[in-house]
Amino acid sequence: MAAARDLSLPRSKKLDRPPVERLYGRRRGHALSPRQQRLIEETLPRARLTAAGAADPRAAFRAAVAEVWLEVGFGGGEHTAALVEAHPEVGVIAAEVFENGLVSLLGRYVPEGAEATALPPPNLLLWPEDARALLRLLPDGALARLFLMFPDPWPKARHARRRFVHPALLPEVARALAPGAEWRIASDDPTYQDWVAETLAGQGLFEVAAVTDLRPQDWPATRYEAKALREGRRPRYWSLIRRA
């Protein structure tokens, strides 16, 4: 991730800009292998959360779940997988538009040759679209936790409106979270860290319960965190609590 600070516009002016219609850029990096293409074409349609299912997300899982968590932009899927495996009583919705990330997560659970029949764990559903569209579909208070781990910082001024942490989106995030629910954010990018701090300073929907430069013990590690540390960047971690 880029480490340079974007000073081309005062941050206060950037905060006033409305978000764009989509958060993501491209949907695919390197070409998919035949196995990965089968995961997209055969497994993903059976493992995804539908728009109709989002209206009652607890009922959409193949297992009974006590509550629902959402990870926005799960990347390679290691953080999502750790949540799913450590909390079988929780339904985890994993949102990611990048096809290479989708096949990385699905490939953890689907054996070679079983793409048309196998499924990921029953407490996992995928949302392969913009996470903001999902937020609009969820009922009030549907989520007990939200995770935003090392998102693309969109460091240029013209891209700031693509950031998930955005003043215009905070009310929608708060609506989908139950009172007392936790929103975890992590970023290694100085521009995004400053953006998060300023955005949170001007709102009353979330209590900033903790901000630290050391990953809390119960936060699963990610490859992006490891890369940041190798390259000399210091991640920052926020724990936000939805106010009643």
Structure characterization notes:
With 244 residues, the chain is an alpha/beta fold. 34% of the residues lie in helices and 20% in strands. The protein has 10 helices and 7 strands. The protein has helices at residues 11-16, 34-47, 51-54, 57-60, 78-86, 99-109, 131-137, 170-176, 190-201, 223-230; strands at residues 67-72, 90-95, 124-127, 143-149, 177-187, 206-212, 236-242. The protein has a 7-stranded mixed β-sheet, with helices on both faces. Helix 2 (34-47) packs across helix 6. The chain is globular and about 50 Å long. The protein starts with 10 loop residues before the first helix and ends with a strand.
Number of strands: 7
- Percent strand equals 15-25%
| Terminal residue distance | 35 Å
Query: What's the arrangement of strands in the largest beta sheet?
Result: 3-2-1-4-5-7-6
Rg (C-alpha, Å): 18 Å
The tally of helices reads 10
Characterize this entry briefly.
The chain has a seven-stranded mixed beta sheet with strand order 3-2-1-4-5-7-6, sandwiched between helices.
Features:
244 residues; alpha/beta; Rossmann fold; seven-stranded mixed β-sheet; 34% helix; disordered N terminus
Which SSEs are present, and which pair or pack?
Layout: H1 11-16, H2 34-47, H3 51-54, H4 57-60, E1 67-72, H5 78-86, E2 90-95, H6 99-109, E3 124-127, H7 131-137, E4 143-149, H8 170-176, E5 177-187, H9 190-201, E6 206-212, H10 223-230, E7 236-242
Parallel strand pairs: 1-2, 1-4, 2-3, 4-5
Antiparallel strand pairs: 5-7, 6-7
Helix pairs in contact: 2-6
